[in-house]
Every structure is written in C-alpha cells, then in structure tokens.
Amino acid sequence: MSIATRLPYAANNVVRSSYRFSLSAAQTRYLSATAFVGKPYVVVAHDATDSGALQRRLDVRPAHFEKVAAAKAEGKIVLGGAILDSPNEEKMVGSVLVVDMESKEAVEEFVRADVYVKNNVWKSWEIFPFKPAKL
Questions:
Q1: Which residues have CB under 8 Å from 113's CB, separation 6+?
Q2: CATH of the domain at 90
Q3: Tally of structural domains, the chain
Q4: Which of 77, 84, 91, 95 is the most exposed place for a label (fewest CB within 10 A)?
C-alpha cells in the first residue's frame, strides 16, 4: 500500500508506518501561507537499515546541509527534517522534505544528486504532489 493511501489529510499530523511527526502551529501556518512558485511536493526518504547507515549519515550530513541550505536560499526547499525511529530514541531513520520545484522529475533529479543517495544513506524515497491547507 502506498504511503499516499495511509497519510491523513490533516496538515499537522503525518503518519508513516510506525514513524510519526507533528508540525508545530507556526510551521503549519508557514506552510499554508507559503506562495509556491513551482509545484509543491513532499519527499519521504528512507535510510538504509544496515549497521553502518547511521554513521554514513553523520559523516556526510555537513555536505547534505550545505546542499539543502543552498536549495532553500534558491526557494527550492520549504521545510525539511529527519524522521526519527521513536520520540524517545531520536535515532534518525529517514528524512522528509517539502519542496517547490517545477516537476516531479526535477524533484527526482534533486534527490538523486544528494550526498545521502550517493553515499547509500537514503535507500529509497517517495515523492508526492502536495497541496498545503489554507489555515
């Protein structure tokens, strides 16, 4: 079953399998007020599960942050962050990005060029069209 069929449409409550994260009221207002130039998409990336995956993530994280900071400055990334395995453990097991790009193909190209993909941190990802709620 695709994640699209499992996600509730509530803007402040997103669930994927056992992963759960909530957007703050300020983040929800920010997303709903953002004027997208291209088309909004959500990227849900899943980390590799081997024993070295977390260390690879930590090793290339500065380079990843450099790339996403530049993309944010260009208006391509609206919001991003790590998916955690649980609220208490805070082990990173994936990522979520809200992006503003012209096409799903542009998003795919952006993801494939990321150091997390090139260094086998993200093993898979899903890209969904996104419609922010007007809250």
A1: none
A2: 3.30.70.1060
A3: 1
A4: 91
